[in-house]
């Protein structure tokens, strides 16, 4: 039995199409050409020239690597292939010269993926609900007014410094894209402020950040840095105005707003949001992962030795069976010769 792991190319699509993943609707089938190029890295584990598992990572802002796209063939599960391919993806991300942080984002109910992430040394960081709705009009207070838009780039940057980049600020994770939150750093915000719309209230004590993005459907991404969103007059009126403008271009546009457990609990009982299974962000800095590698290297070496020993045992069993077959054939030949 031969086994290899390599980076996938467009030529490997047929291998993936032959996998039995158990997924009724797998976006990776039609997006395969995109997720193997650019900042996307996809690796496959082959057993006897058959693709049995794959995983990879995407680089964001040159310094963040998000692992994902784990798939295993149903016929080959419980062989450790999922853990093996994710560990390989992690090790490849560690080799990227500019990456400073590596993580993964998985739904709370996906216990199998969480177990894999635990095995490869990626601890949970935070839990977020992807709150979605096509209208927040029910949350608008009648006496509220629209917040003023900020267009000056230096003022936008100042809001980021006063919130997420302030060491004393309690939120340490920023939702850069739908499905992709990351620990804050100056690099995380580089090149994005021009594309984001900032609005601030009358006394300039609060702001909200809005932008549109497409992830299978069009979203108006909402980022409010504080926990007191239910207490801010004009906030939901401002969000609703931008949502309606986005829906004029694409009527199926909905809000995407990452909420912590604490924030989700603050919503009124009749809130308009759909709150699906929350996502758990896992991850560590490259520095921490590399320091962990020193202590884990013995464990990995031991695992490798165990794998080699198992393969040797399998080989010995094959040789033993072949020897028995040869002995039987030799005895038959001997008996036949004696009869003659």
UniProtKB/TrEMBL annotation:
UniProt protein name: Acetyltransferase (GNAT) family protein
Keyword Transferase found: yes
Entry GO MF terms: acyltransferase activity, transferring groups other than amino-acyl groups
Coiled-coil stretches noted in the UniProt entry, renumbered to this chain: 298-339
Annotated N-acetyltransferase domain residues: 3-143
InterPro entries from the UniProt entry: Acyl_CoA_acyltransferase (IPR016181), GNAT_dom (IPR000182)
Keyword tags: Coiled coil, Transferase
Pfam families, alphabetized: Acetyltransf_1
Tree of life domain: Bacteria
Annotated source species: Alkalibacterium subtropicum
């Amino acid at each position: 039995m031969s086994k290899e792991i390599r980076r996938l190319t467009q030529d490997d699509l047929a291998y993936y199409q032959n996998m039995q993943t158990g997924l009724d609707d797998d976006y990776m089938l039609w997006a395969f050409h995109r997720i193997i190029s650019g900042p996307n890295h996809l690796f496959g584990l082959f057993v006897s020239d058959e693709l049995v598992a794959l995983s990879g990572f995407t680089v964001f802002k040159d310094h963040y690597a998000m692992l994902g796209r784990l798939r295993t063939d149903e016929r080959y599960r419980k062989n450790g292939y999922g853990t093996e391919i994710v560990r390989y993806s992690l090790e490849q991300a560690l080799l990227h010269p500019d990456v400073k942080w590596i993580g993964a984002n998985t739904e709370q109910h996906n216990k199998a993926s969480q177990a894999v992430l635990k095995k490869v040394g990626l601890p949970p960081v935070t839990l977020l609900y992807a709150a979605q709705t096509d209208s927040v009009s029910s949350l608008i207070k009648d006496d509220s007014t629209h917040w003023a838009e900020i267009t000056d780039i230096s003022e936008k940057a100042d809001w980021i410094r006063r919130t997420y980049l302030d060491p004393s600020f309690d939120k340490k994770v920023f939702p850069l894209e739908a499905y992709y939150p990351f620990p804050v750093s100056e690099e995380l915000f580089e090149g994005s402020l021009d594309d984001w719309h900032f609005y601030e209230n009358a006394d300039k004590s609060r702001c909200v950040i809005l932008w549109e993005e497409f992830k299978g459907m069009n979203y108006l991404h909402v980022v409010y840095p504080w926990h007191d969103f239910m207490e801010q007059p004009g906030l939901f009126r401002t969000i609703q105005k931008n949502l309606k403008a986005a829906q004029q271009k694409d009527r199926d546009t909905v809000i995407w707003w990452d909420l912590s457990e604490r924030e989700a609990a603050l919503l009124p009982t009749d809130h308009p949001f759909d709150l699906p299974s929350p996502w758990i962000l896992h991850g560590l800095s490259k520095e921490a992962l590399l320091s962990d590698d020193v202590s884990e290297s013995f464990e990995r070496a031991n695992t490798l030795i165990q794998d080699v020993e198992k393969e040797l045992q399998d080989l010995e069993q094959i040789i033993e069976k072949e020897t028995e077959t040869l002995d039987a054939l030799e005895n038959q030949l001997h008996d036949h010769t004696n009869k003659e």
